[in-house]
Amino acid sequence: MRAPDFVVSPSRDDLRAAATRLAPHVRRTPVMEIDGGDLGTKARVVLKLELLQHTGSFKARGALNTLLTRSVPVGGVVAASGGNHGAAVAWAASRAGVPAQVFVPATSPPVKARRIAAYGATVVVVDGYYPDALAASREWAADRQVTEVHAYDASEVVAGQGSLGLELADQVPDADQVLVSCGGGGLFAGVALALDGGPMVLPVEPERCRTLHAALAAGGPVQGEVGGVAADSMGAATAGRIAYEVAASRGITPPLVPDDAIVTAREFLWERCRILAEPGGATAFASLFCGVVRPAAGTTVVVVVSGGNTLEIPGATSEA
Amino acid sequence: MRAPDFVVSPSRDDLRAAATRLAPHVRRTPVMEIDGGDLGTKARVVLKLELLQHTGSFKARGALNTLLTRSVPVGGVVAASGGNHGAAVAWAASRAGVPAQVFVPATSPPVKARRIAAYGATVVVVDGYYPDALAASREWAADRQVTEVHAYDASEVVAGQGSLGLELADQVPDADQVLVSCGGGGLFAGVALALDGGPMVLPVEPERCRTLHAALAAGGPVQGEVGGVAADSMGAATAGRIAYEVAASRGITPPLVPDDAIVTAREFLWERCRILAEPGGATAFASLFCGVVRPAAGTTVVVVVSGGNTLEIPGATSEA
User: Fold this and answer.
1) What is the pLDDT of residues B232-271, one digit of tens each?
2) CB-based contacts of A173: which residues, under 8 Å, 6+ apart?
3) How much helix, strand and coil, in percent to the nearest 5, is found in chain A?
4) Which residues of chain B are within 8 Å of residue A110 when distances are taken between CB atoms?
5) Torsional sign, CA A78, A79, A80, A83
6) How many inter-chain contacts (A to B, CB under 8 Å) are there?
7) What is each CA distance from B244 to A43, B203, B221, in whole angstroms?
8) What ipTM does this complex have?
C-alpha cells in the first residue's frame, strides 16, 4: 500500500480545482427555503439537499476528487466505511474504471453493503464499528499495490467536500451561518475552508459521537466511544486532523445534539418536507430543534442535509 | 352550499395573480439536473421536485389559491378526499384561518386521515369508497354556508397549479418540453396555460387511468374505469373540462405509460436520487423509461415529480 500522503489542509486553489474537476460528474444539489416559523425561529432557513447527490451523500465528492487527482495503481482502491464513504468510493472507482475493495462494519445497515456492491465494489463485512473495519482494511492492504481513500482526513477528500461549500456560496450568497453534520469532520473542514471569510460554518455532533468535541478538549484528535441513532454514519471515533485544525484555529465549539432531537429532525424532514434523511444526515438540522443553535431573527441559516441512506421512514412502522 | 362557479380556464392575468398571491405561502420547490445518460437519452433532464411542496404535492397551490380568492363563508370549506387534495384543503384552510371539514372514505390508508387531521381539519370517516365520502360531504354541506373546493376542475384551482409553471419558466428558461402526470388534469392545464407559447407541456397518463385520453377520444369528458398502481392519486375517473379544452385546442395526445414503467421510475428516483415519490408522482418520469416520450439529443426536458405521499420504499420489504 502507498503510504498515506502527509495530511495537510487543501488550499483555496485546491478547493477551486476540485470543484472544476468534479463539476461534470457530481450533481449540483438544490437548495430549498422552508418556513422558519415552523421551527420556532424568525431566521430564514434554507436546506441544502445533498442527500440527493450520487450515492445518497456528499461523500461522492471527496471520493471522486481523490480518484481523479491521484494516480491509482492497477490494484485499485481500498476503503473502510460505515457505508456512505464506501458507496462513494465504489461509485467513484466505477467512474474512474478501477477496482474497489470496501470494508464495512457489521453494525452498518445491510442496505449500505448492498448498495456498495451494486456499484461494483468487493464488500468485506467486519465485526464491530468503523475503527474495526479500518484496521481490517489496512491489514488487507499492507502488502498490496492499492490506494487507500480515507473517509475524511485527506487533503483531496476535504477539497472534494469543499465543492459543496463553493456551490453554497453561489446558491445562497447571503448566508450568515451554515450548519453541517460532523462525524470525522471532512464535510465540515471542506465547507469551512471553502467559505473562509464568509458565513460561520458550525459542525454539529451527536452527543454520543462527539469526536471533534473530544479532540478540541484534548488538544488533538483522540479515540472516543461512539453510539446512538446516528453512529452508522457519524461514528468516526477519531476526528480528522484537518477538521481539528480548522475548528481549533477558528475557536469553534461544535454544538452537541441529543438523539431525540435527531429523531425529531428526521420526522420533520419527512412529515413536513418529504425529505427522507438518515440520522446522520439530519444531525445538523437537529440543532435547530433542541435549541443548541438559535439563529438571530432576520439572519439566513443554511442547513446541509447530507445523507439519505436509510430504509426506515419515521412513523411508517406504526402505520403499516 | 354555494353553487360551483362556472368552469372557465383562467386567463394569463389570473395565473400571474395566483402566483403573486401564493408566493408568501407555498414553497418554491427546487429543480435538479440529472444525467440523461443514466436514462438512455442524450437530452438534458431536469427534475422539478414538487413533492417537497407543503402537504407533499402540488395540490397545496390550487387549494390555497381557491381559499385566498373566494370569499369563504363562516362555515368554511368542505372536501371529500382520502388523499392529496384533502391534505391540501386542510392545510390551506389552516393558513386562511377558516374551518375545514374533510370527508374520508374508511378504505383510505390511516396515515392520510391522520395527516389531514394534523393540519387542523375535522375529519369524518365514511364507510365505503370515495363516492360514499363525496355523497356524505354533499349531504352535510346541503344546508350549510360552506364552500366546496374541487380537486381539479375549477378556474382558481387550475390558476394555482399554474404557479408551478411560472416558477419553471424562471428556473429552466430554456426548457423544450415539460412532462407532468395527469389525473384530473388540473396540474397539466395550469402548467400548459402558464407556459403557453413556450415549451411543449405533455400530460402523461397511466394506461389504467386514461381519463384525458378518453375525453379526447369522446369529444368531451366521460367517466371511465380506473385502476393500477397509481389509481390512488391518478384515478379521477373523469377528466376536467378545463384540461380537456386545453388539450383539445392544442391537439395534444397524452402519452400513456404502463404500470411497470411507473414502478421502474419510482425505483430509479429512490435508488439513484433518494427521491421518494408516490406512483402518481412518478408517472410523468415513467414516460422516459418506456420510450413513449423520446426527447431529441441536446434538448432540455423538465419532468415534474408531483407527489410524495407514500410510506412504501421500493425494495424496502426485501431488506427489513
Assistant:
1) 888 778 899 999 999 999 999 999 999 999 999 999 999 9
2) none
3) 45, 15, 40
4) 319
5) negative
6) 65
7) 44, 11, 7
8) 0.94
